[in-house]
Design a protein that fits this description.
Elements lengths: L2 H28 L12 H10 L1 H5 L4 H11 L1 H20 L3 H6 L1 H28 L8 H27 L3 H15 L1 H11 L9 H26 L14 H22 L12 H23 L3 H24 L9 H12 L1 H20 L15
Helix pairs in contact: 1-5, 5-7, 7-8, 8-9, 8-15, 9-11, 9-16, 10-11, 11-13, 11-14, 11-15, 11-16, 12-13, 12-14, 13-14, 14-15, 14-16
Protein backbone atom coordinates (compact mmCIF):
# COMPACT_ATOMS: atom_id res chain seq x y z
CA UNK A 1 0.00 0.00 0.00
CA UNK A 2 1.46 3.39 -0.99
CA UNK A 3 1.54 6.43 1.25
CA UNK A 4 -1.56 8.02 -0.31
CA UNK A 5 -3.61 4.94 0.49
CA UNK A 6 -2.23 4.83 4.01
CA UNK A 7 -3.19 8.48 4.51
CA UNK A 8 -6.67 7.67 3.22
CA UNK A 9 -6.97 4.76 5.64
CA UNK A 10 -5.79 6.91 8.55
CA UNK A 11 -8.41 9.52 7.68
CA UNK A 12 -11.02 6.79 7.38
CA UNK A 13 -10.21 5.48 10.85
CA UNK A 14 -10.38 9.02 12.21
CA UNK A 15 -13.77 9.67 10.59
CA UNK A 16 -15.17 6.30 11.69
CA UNK A 17 -14.11 6.86 15.30
CA UNK A 18 -15.37 10.45 15.17
CA UNK A 19 -18.82 9.44 13.92
CA UNK A 20 -19.13 6.61 16.44
CA UNK A 21 -17.92 8.87 19.25
CA UNK A 22 -20.25 11.72 18.28
CA UNK A 23 -23.27 9.42 18.27
CA UNK A 24 -22.29 7.62 21.47
CA UNK A 25 -21.07 10.51 23.66
CA UNK A 26 -24.47 12.09 24.48
CA UNK A 27 -26.09 8.68 25.06
CA UNK A 28 -23.29 7.58 27.39
CA UNK A 29 -23.20 10.85 29.34
CA UNK A 30 -26.96 10.73 29.84
CA UNK A 31 -27.16 7.00 30.57
CA UNK A 32 -26.98 7.22 34.38
CA UNK A 33 -28.64 10.62 34.89
CA UNK A 34 -32.13 9.10 35.38
CA UNK A 35 -30.72 7.09 38.30
CA UNK A 36 -30.18 10.33 40.24
CA UNK A 37 -33.62 11.89 39.77
CA UNK A 38 -37.07 11.28 38.38
CA UNK A 39 -38.26 12.90 35.20
CA UNK A 40 -34.82 12.94 33.57
CA UNK A 41 -35.03 11.87 29.91
CA UNK A 42 -33.38 8.56 28.97
CA UNK A 43 -31.96 9.26 25.55
CA UNK A 44 -30.71 5.77 24.72
CA UNK A 45 -34.03 4.19 25.67
CA UNK A 46 -35.90 6.93 23.82
CA UNK A 47 -33.97 6.21 20.62
CA UNK A 48 -34.48 2.48 21.02
CA UNK A 49 -38.20 2.94 21.73
CA UNK A 50 -38.65 5.18 18.70
CA UNK A 51 -37.07 2.57 16.42
CA UNK A 52 -38.18 -0.72 17.97
CA UNK A 53 -41.03 0.00 20.35
CA UNK A 54 -41.35 0.27 24.11
CA UNK A 55 -41.75 -3.48 24.66
CA UNK A 56 -38.34 -4.23 23.13
CA UNK A 57 -36.56 -1.29 24.77
CA UNK A 58 -37.99 -1.54 28.29
CA UNK A 59 -40.10 -4.70 28.55
CA UNK A 60 -39.29 -8.26 29.51
CA UNK A 61 -35.86 -9.32 28.30
CA UNK A 62 -34.50 -5.76 28.30
CA UNK A 63 -31.56 -4.34 30.25
CA UNK A 64 -33.98 -2.16 32.20
CA UNK A 65 -35.98 -5.19 33.33
CA UNK A 66 -33.04 -7.15 34.75
CA UNK A 67 -30.42 -4.56 35.77
CA UNK A 68 -32.31 -1.52 37.04
CA UNK A 69 -31.89 -2.43 40.71
CA UNK A 70 -28.15 -3.10 40.36
CA UNK A 71 -27.71 0.15 38.44
CA UNK A 72 -29.57 2.11 41.12
CA UNK A 73 -27.56 0.59 43.97
CA UNK A 74 -24.21 1.30 42.31
CA UNK A 75 -25.10 4.40 40.33
CA UNK A 76 -22.00 6.40 41.32
CA UNK A 77 -19.65 3.65 40.12
CA UNK A 78 -21.65 3.34 36.91
CA UNK A 79 -21.65 7.11 36.42
CA UNK A 80 -17.86 7.27 36.67
CA UNK A 81 -17.47 4.31 34.29
CA UNK A 82 -19.81 5.54 31.55
CA UNK A 83 -18.82 9.21 31.70
CA UNK A 84 -15.05 8.72 31.70
CA UNK A 85 -15.29 5.92 29.14
CA UNK A 86 -17.22 8.14 26.74
CA UNK A 87 -14.75 11.00 27.19
CA UNK A 88 -11.81 8.63 26.67
CA UNK A 89 -13.33 7.36 23.43
CA UNK A 90 -13.84 10.94 22.27
CA UNK A 91 -10.16 11.67 22.85
CA UNK A 92 -9.20 8.42 21.12
CA UNK A 93 -10.42 9.61 17.74
CA UNK A 94 -7.78 12.35 17.69
CA UNK A 95 -5.07 9.71 18.05
CA UNK A 96 -5.89 8.61 14.49
CA UNK A 97 -5.12 12.07 13.13
CA UNK A 98 -1.79 11.97 11.29
CA UNK A 99 -1.89 15.78 11.04
CA UNK A 100 -1.95 16.23 14.81
CA UNK A 101 0.65 13.52 15.31
CA UNK A 102 3.08 15.10 12.85
CA UNK A 103 2.46 18.84 13.30
CA UNK A 104 1.73 19.00 17.03
CA UNK A 105 3.38 16.00 18.67
CA UNK A 106 3.01 17.52 22.15
CA UNK A 107 -0.77 17.72 21.67
CA UNK A 108 -0.75 14.12 20.48
CA UNK A 109 1.19 12.99 23.56
CA UNK A 110 -0.97 14.85 26.09
CA UNK A 111 -4.12 13.69 24.37
CA UNK A 112 -2.84 10.13 24.64
CA UNK A 113 -2.00 10.54 28.31
CA UNK A 114 -5.48 11.91 28.96
CA UNK A 115 -7.01 8.96 27.13
CA UNK A 116 -4.94 6.55 29.21
CA UNK A 117 -5.97 8.17 32.50
CA UNK A 118 -9.68 8.37 31.69
CA UNK A 119 -9.79 4.88 30.20
CA UNK A 120 -7.98 3.37 33.19
CA UNK A 121 -10.43 4.76 35.73
CA UNK A 122 -13.36 3.79 33.51
CA UNK A 123 -12.20 0.19 33.14
CA UNK A 124 -11.36 -0.17 36.84
CA UNK A 125 -14.82 1.05 37.83
CA UNK A 126 -16.31 -1.38 35.29
CA UNK A 127 -14.48 -4.23 36.99
CA UNK A 128 -15.68 -3.00 40.40
CA UNK A 129 -19.28 -2.93 39.17
CA UNK A 130 -18.99 -6.43 37.72
CA UNK A 131 -17.47 -7.68 40.98
CA UNK A 132 -20.18 -6.32 43.27
CA UNK A 133 -23.21 -7.22 41.10
CA UNK A 134 -24.45 -10.62 39.94
CA UNK A 135 -24.83 -11.42 36.23
CA UNK A 136 -28.03 -10.43 34.47
CA UNK A 137 -30.89 -12.90 34.96
CA UNK A 138 -30.90 -14.08 31.36
CA UNK A 139 -29.30 -16.94 29.47
CA UNK A 140 -26.58 -14.60 28.14
CA UNK A 141 -25.88 -13.15 31.60
CA UNK A 142 -22.89 -15.19 32.86
CA UNK A 143 -21.22 -15.37 29.44
CA UNK A 144 -21.69 -11.67 28.79
CA UNK A 145 -20.25 -10.77 32.19
CA UNK A 146 -17.19 -12.89 31.41
CA UNK A 147 -16.74 -11.05 28.13
CA UNK A 148 -17.08 -7.66 29.83
CA UNK A 149 -14.35 -8.61 32.30
CA UNK A 150 -12.13 -9.70 29.42
CA UNK A 151 -12.80 -6.48 27.51
CA UNK A 152 -11.88 -4.35 30.52
CA UNK A 153 -8.67 -6.27 31.19
CA UNK A 154 -7.74 -6.37 27.49
CA UNK A 155 -8.33 -2.64 27.07
CA UNK A 156 -6.20 -1.84 30.10
CA UNK A 157 -3.39 -4.27 29.30
CA UNK A 158 -3.01 -3.24 25.66
CA UNK A 159 -2.98 0.50 26.43
CA UNK A 160 -0.47 0.18 29.25
CA UNK A 161 1.72 -2.09 27.16
CA UNK A 162 1.59 0.58 24.45
CA UNK A 163 2.91 3.08 27.00
CA UNK A 164 5.69 0.65 27.94
CA UNK A 165 6.55 0.23 24.24
CA UNK A 166 6.89 3.95 23.58
CA UNK A 167 9.11 4.29 26.64
CA UNK A 168 11.33 1.71 24.95
CA UNK A 169 11.08 3.73 21.70
CA UNK A 170 9.24 0.87 20.03
CA UNK A 171 6.90 2.96 17.88
CA UNK A 172 5.52 -0.01 15.96
CA UNK A 173 4.33 -1.90 19.04
CA UNK A 174 3.09 1.31 20.62
CA UNK A 175 0.81 2.20 17.74
CA UNK A 176 -0.35 -1.38 17.23
CA UNK A 177 -1.43 -1.93 20.83
CA UNK A 178 -3.05 1.48 21.11
CA UNK A 179 -5.10 0.57 18.07
CA UNK A 180 -6.05 -2.68 19.80
CA UNK A 181 -7.08 -0.81 22.96
CA UNK A 182 -9.21 1.67 21.04
CA UNK A 183 -10.82 -1.16 19.06
CA UNK A 184 -11.93 -2.68 22.35
CA UNK A 185 -13.21 0.70 23.55
CA UNK A 186 -15.32 0.95 20.40
CA UNK A 187 -17.21 -2.21 21.34
CA UNK A 188 -19.36 -0.20 23.79
CA UNK A 189 -21.03 2.03 21.17
CA UNK A 190 -20.94 -0.63 18.45
CA UNK A 191 -22.77 -3.10 20.68
CA UNK A 192 -25.52 -0.53 21.21
CA UNK A 193 -25.77 0.15 17.49
CA UNK A 194 -26.13 -3.59 16.91
CA UNK A 195 -28.82 -4.29 19.50
CA UNK A 196 -30.86 -1.29 18.36
CA UNK A 197 -30.33 -1.75 14.63
CA UNK A 198 -30.64 -5.52 14.32
CA UNK A 199 -34.05 -5.91 15.97
CA UNK A 200 -36.06 -5.20 12.78
CA UNK A 201 -34.05 -7.98 11.09
CA UNK A 202 -34.64 -10.58 13.82
CA UNK A 203 -37.73 -9.33 15.67
CA UNK A 204 -38.21 -12.64 17.48
CA UNK A 205 -35.26 -11.83 19.79
CA UNK A 206 -35.58 -9.80 22.96
CA UNK A 207 -33.04 -7.07 23.65
CA UNK A 208 -30.73 -9.16 25.83
CA UNK A 209 -30.61 -11.92 23.20
CA UNK A 210 -29.53 -9.30 20.68
CA UNK A 211 -26.86 -8.13 23.12
CA UNK A 212 -25.63 -11.71 22.93
CA UNK A 213 -25.74 -11.51 19.13
CA UNK A 214 -23.66 -8.33 19.16
CA UNK A 215 -21.21 -9.79 21.65
CA UNK A 216 -20.62 -12.84 19.45
CA UNK A 217 -20.01 -10.60 16.43
CA UNK A 218 -17.68 -8.22 18.26
CA UNK A 219 -15.75 -11.10 19.81
CA UNK A 220 -14.32 -11.61 16.32
CA UNK A 221 -14.56 -8.12 14.83
CA UNK A 222 -12.86 -6.13 17.62
CA UNK A 223 -9.49 -7.96 17.75
CA UNK A 224 -9.68 -8.85 14.05
CA UNK A 225 -10.39 -5.26 13.04
CA UNK A 226 -7.39 -4.01 15.02
CA UNK A 227 -5.16 -6.57 13.29
CA UNK A 228 -6.45 -5.78 9.80
CA UNK A 229 -6.04 -2.04 10.41
CA UNK A 230 -2.46 -2.56 11.54
CA UNK A 231 -1.48 -4.62 8.49
CA UNK A 232 -3.27 -2.38 6.01
CA UNK A 233 -1.80 0.84 7.38
CA UNK A 234 1.87 -0.20 7.42
CA UNK A 235 4.47 -0.78 4.78
CA UNK A 236 5.46 -4.44 4.79
CA UNK A 237 8.93 -5.11 6.24
CA UNK A 238 11.72 -5.93 3.82
CA UNK A 239 13.27 -8.97 5.44
CA UNK A 240 14.53 -12.41 4.56
CA UNK A 241 11.19 -13.64 3.20
CA UNK A 242 11.78 -14.11 -0.53
CA UNK A 243 9.54 -17.03 -1.47
CA UNK A 244 5.84 -17.68 -1.35
CA UNK A 245 4.47 -20.15 1.19
CA UNK A 246 3.27 -23.49 -0.18
CA UNK A 247 -0.44 -23.59 -0.98
CA UNK A 248 -1.07 -26.56 1.34
CA UNK A 249 -0.61 -24.28 4.34
CA UNK A 250 -3.65 -22.29 3.29
CA UNK A 251 -5.59 -25.47 2.73
CA UNK A 252 -4.64 -26.60 6.22
CA UNK A 253 -5.85 -23.30 7.70
CA UNK A 254 -9.20 -23.60 5.93
CA UNK A 255 -9.51 -27.23 7.06
CA UNK A 256 -8.89 -26.13 10.66
CA UNK A 257 -11.61 -23.50 10.31
CA UNK A 258 -14.04 -26.10 8.93
CA UNK A 259 -13.26 -28.49 11.79
CA UNK A 260 -13.73 -25.79 14.40
CA UNK A 261 -16.95 -24.56 12.77
CA UNK A 262 -18.46 -28.03 12.78
CA UNK A 263 -17.40 -28.58 16.38
CA UNK A 264 -18.89 -25.33 17.64
CA UNK A 265 -22.05 -25.85 15.60
CA UNK A 266 -22.42 -29.25 17.21
CA UNK A 267 -22.07 -27.71 20.66
CA UNK A 268 -24.64 -24.98 20.00
CA UNK A 269 -27.11 -27.54 18.65
CA UNK A 270 -27.27 -28.89 22.23
CA UNK A 271 -28.35 -25.57 23.73
CA UNK A 272 -31.66 -25.96 25.60
CA UNK A 273 -34.80 -24.03 24.81
CA UNK A 274 -35.47 -21.11 24.66
CA UNK A 275 -31.88 -20.33 23.60
CA UNK A 276 -31.92 -19.96 19.79
CA UNK A 277 -29.52 -22.31 18.03
CA UNK A 278 -29.07 -19.64 15.35
CA UNK A 279 -26.65 -17.85 17.70
CA UNK A 280 -23.87 -19.92 16.15
CA UNK A 281 -24.25 -17.94 12.91
CA UNK A 282 -23.28 -14.71 14.62
CA UNK A 283 -19.95 -16.27 15.56
CA UNK A 284 -19.23 -18.17 12.35
CA UNK A 285 -20.28 -15.57 9.77
CA UNK A 286 -17.80 -12.92 11.05
CA UNK A 287 -15.13 -15.62 11.28
CA UNK A 288 -15.56 -16.73 7.66
CA UNK A 289 -15.77 -13.15 6.38
CA UNK A 290 -12.49 -12.49 8.19
CA UNK A 291 -10.95 -15.62 6.68
CA UNK A 292 -12.02 -14.43 3.23
CA UNK A 293 -10.44 -11.01 3.82
CA UNK A 294 -7.19 -12.61 4.94
CA UNK A 295 -7.12 -14.87 1.87
CA UNK A 296 -7.71 -11.85 -0.37
CA UNK A 297 -4.78 -10.14 1.33
CA UNK A 298 -2.64 -13.23 0.74
CA UNK A 299 -3.62 -13.40 -2.92
CA UNK A 300 -2.83 -9.73 -3.55
CA UNK A 301 0.52 -9.98 -1.79
CA UNK A 302 1.50 -13.08 -3.79
CA UNK A 303 0.49 -11.38 -7.03
CA UNK A 304 2.92 -8.55 -6.22
CA UNK A 305 5.66 -10.90 -5.00
CA UNK A 306 5.39 -9.18 -1.63
CA UNK A 307 6.17 -12.23 0.45
CA UNK A 308 6.67 -10.36 3.72
CA UNK A 309 3.15 -9.00 3.41
CA UNK A 310 1.90 -12.46 2.48
CA UNK A 311 3.38 -13.80 5.70
CA UNK A 312 1.53 -11.18 7.76
CA UNK A 313 -1.79 -12.09 6.18
CA UNK A 314 -1.00 -15.81 6.56
CA UNK A 315 -0.34 -15.45 10.26
CA UNK A 316 -3.59 -13.51 10.71
CA UNK A 317 -5.41 -16.15 8.64
CA UNK A 318 -4.34 -18.79 11.15
CA UNK A 319 -5.75 -16.65 13.96
CA UNK A 320 -9.13 -16.43 12.26
CA UNK A 321 -9.07 -20.10 11.26
CA UNK A 322 -8.39 -21.20 14.83
CA UNK A 323 -11.18 -19.04 16.28
CA UNK A 324 -14.07 -21.57 16.11
CA UNK A 325 -11.98 -24.36 17.62
CA UNK A 326 -10.78 -21.98 20.30
CA UNK A 327 -14.41 -21.10 21.05
CA UNK A 328 -15.16 -24.80 21.47
CA UNK A 329 -12.16 -25.41 23.74
CA UNK A 330 -12.83 -22.27 25.77
CA UNK A 331 -16.20 -23.69 26.77
CA UNK A 332 -14.29 -26.37 28.71
CA UNK A 333 -12.31 -23.96 30.91
CA UNK A 334 -15.00 -21.54 32.10
CA UNK A 335 -15.84 -21.14 35.82
CA UNK A 336 -17.20 -24.32 37.43
CA UNK A 337 -20.50 -22.68 38.38
CA UNK A 338 -21.35 -22.17 34.69
CA UNK A 339 -23.98 -24.39 33.15
CA UNK A 340 -23.23 -26.13 29.85
CA UNK A 341 -25.22 -23.43 28.04
CA UNK A 342 -23.26 -20.66 29.82
CA UNK A 343 -20.00 -22.30 28.80
CA UNK A 344 -20.95 -22.71 25.13
CA UNK A 345 -22.11 -19.11 24.79
CA UNK A 346 -19.02 -17.83 26.64
CA UNK A 347 -16.85 -19.80 24.24
CA UNK A 348 -18.35 -17.97 21.28
CA UNK A 349 -18.03 -14.56 22.94
CA UNK A 350 -14.52 -14.92 24.33
CA UNK A 351 -12.73 -17.83 22.67
CA UNK A 352 -12.24 -16.28 19.24
CA UNK A 353 -10.19 -13.38 20.58
CA UNK A 354 -7.46 -15.66 21.95
CA UNK A 355 -5.89 -16.99 18.70
CA UNK A 356 -6.56 -13.72 16.86
CA UNK A 357 -4.73 -11.76 19.55
CA UNK A 358 -1.84 -14.24 19.65
CA UNK A 359 -1.35 -14.00 15.88
CA UNK A 360 -1.67 -10.22 16.04
CA UNK A 361 1.06 -10.13 18.68
CA UNK A 362 3.32 -12.26 16.46
CA UNK A 363 2.75 -9.92 13.51
CA UNK A 364 3.47 -6.83 15.62
CA UNK A 365 6.58 -8.36 17.13
CA UNK A 366 7.98 -9.25 13.72
CA UNK A 367 7.25 -5.77 12.36
CA UNK A 368 8.82 -4.10 15.39
CA UNK A 369 11.93 -6.27 15.10
CA UNK A 370 12.24 -5.49 11.38
CA UNK A 371 12.05 -1.77 12.01
CA UNK A 372 14.57 -1.99 14.86
CA UNK A 373 16.96 -3.68 12.46
CA UNK A 374 16.42 -0.97 9.84
CA UNK A 375 14.45 -3.07 7.37
CA UNK A 376 11.13 -1.27 7.60
CA UNK A 377 10.57 2.51 7.46
CA UNK A 378 7.87 4.00 9.63
CA UNK A 379 4.84 4.59 7.44
CA UNK A 380 3.68 8.14 6.85
CA UNK A 381 0.23 7.37 8.15
CA UNK A 382 0.08 4.48 10.56
CA UNK A 383 -2.46 3.48 13.11
CA UNK A 384 -3.13 5.42 16.31
CA UNK A 385 -0.60 6.15 19.01
CA UNK A 386 -0.71 7.74 22.43
CA UNK A 387 2.39 8.22 24.47
Amino acid sequence: MDNDKRVTLSRGLFLFTAVVGALYLPLALNYTWPLFGTGVPRWQDDVNTAINGRGYALGDGSVDAVRQQAYAEHRVVLLVHTTLGALALTLAMFQFSARIRERWPAVHRWNGRSYLALMTVSMLTALIFLYVTPPARHFIGPAFETQLRGLAVGTLASAWYALYAIRKRDMVSHRAWMTYSIAFMLTAPLLRFIWIGIQPVIPQHDLLTNIGVGSLILGVVAPGGAAVAFIASRQAPSDEVNTAAPVWRYGAAVALAVLGSLTYTGLTSRLPEPIPHSLVAFHLVPVWISIALALIGVARARARDNFARERQWRWLLWGFAAAPLSASLYSLIVPPDFTAADAIIAGGMDGAAIPITICFAVIVRAAARARAQGRSPLAAAETASAA
